[in-house]
Predict the structure.
Amino acid sequence: MQVCLYGGQVTSWKNDHGEELLFMSSKAIFKPPKAIRGGIPICFPQFGAHGNLEQHGFARNRFWTIDNNPPPLPLNPAIKAFVDLILKPSEEDLKIWPHSEVRVEGLETMDYLDNLKAKERFTEQGDAIVFESEIDKVYLSAPSKIAIIDHEKKRTFVLTKEGLPDAVVWNPWDKKAKAMQDFGDVEYKHMLCVEPAAVERPITLKPGEEWKGRLAISAVPSSYCSGQLDPLKVLQG
């Protein structure tokens, strides 16, 4: 794993076979004032424009430092966290964006705010989220586990969150990708963003109160993608 001090951002995460599991734009900018396009950013203390600060808050475009003597992490295995995952299949596997090859499960029947329709509220009707055009939705009161299933790669990412109730799903698609300086014109074909957040009800702390967030990302073996097992129950077994 590789972490950049600019933004405190995870920029690389590889499996035991050396395969890169995170998307990083070839045009990403690693200096202020731009945020790094890709990896796992920290959107704090707000998500998007849902607040009075700059887009996604200030944490992702500030320089962080390393604490050489950090406090110990809690040992309670029930403590999970939110995650921002961007998936990058290979060029060979994805000549064109696979409409049904990559899908997100766990958000069925959830209410969501559609940022492409003035944050109007809808209810998800599909049995999974597939990608055929631009998407920018905030799923409200999302479950603690969400699965990103990559049928082409025969693998599933199970995302486990705690402390942030909502989940954002985003892909800019072709027109918006071409309009972004730090994003390749066709890179929308090779990525998606699933990002738990607190959007509908911002977290407010009183003096002396404390809030913690942890991250849990698991890459499930390909056998779990066959449909014979529920990927959202794998880590519970």
